[in-house]
Design brief:
246 residues; globular; 7% helix; five-stranded antiparallel beta sheet; 30% strand; mainly beta; binds zinc ion; four-stranded antiparallel beta sheet
Length: 246
Amino acid sequence: MMTDNIYYCDYDVLTHYSSGTLNSKHKTDLTGKLQEIDKIIYNDETITNSFKNGEYNSYITFDDLILYRIFGQFKSNISDKIKGARANGAFVSTEFAESLIDAKQRLALDPSWMNTKVYEAKILLLKGSEISLGIVAPVVTKSGTVLEGGADQILLPKGWSEDTIIGYRRVTSRQLLNKPYFSIKNKPDFDTIKKDKNIYKPVCPACGCDDVCILSDKDRFTVVGKNGGVYEMKFNCRNSECRYYW
Ligand SMILES: [Zn+2]
């Protein structure tokens, strides 16, 4: 098989880019979409302090905005209670998760919050919404690790409707190479992790799409990487804007 015109994974040259690089090209641009309003006051210090230097401003949105929220819940074995982060929690961002580790850094997701970070929701926030905007503050975890933050942090009104979520995807462990594709239409089921069938589906490492073709033995092929490594391609992404093989 000729590999000149196909987009495939060359494991020889998988590089790591610095957090925020892909977002600098594809994150939501807020320019001209916000009008400042009187500052919304939150009677909760933890909210104010979650913004860098405690600084934020409040706005009304002039245009529909695409926003992202990383979340994930699980059922505690001990108490039988659902723990973790809800899909419609108040904190969202203009940035998507480039990878699990990048999101943890950029959004300063403290492990003690028990957000499983398995999924990301794509939100279409309708114009006329009142929001607060600042930068994610750094967080020091219990073990002393500094999570730097630095992404745009947007605080939505409490209990915003999940109807504004237009798609979900699995957060990848590898850094995305393309704009993320939110192929999951229905809210993932957290009743128990095991019941959640999405968790076992292969996910495109380039765009996060879970609509993936598993190649049959006869359709598999090998590529030669830049440094001479030979790799068998087993999957193909069905997202028409991606079509990655790996
Ligand atoms: Zn893809």
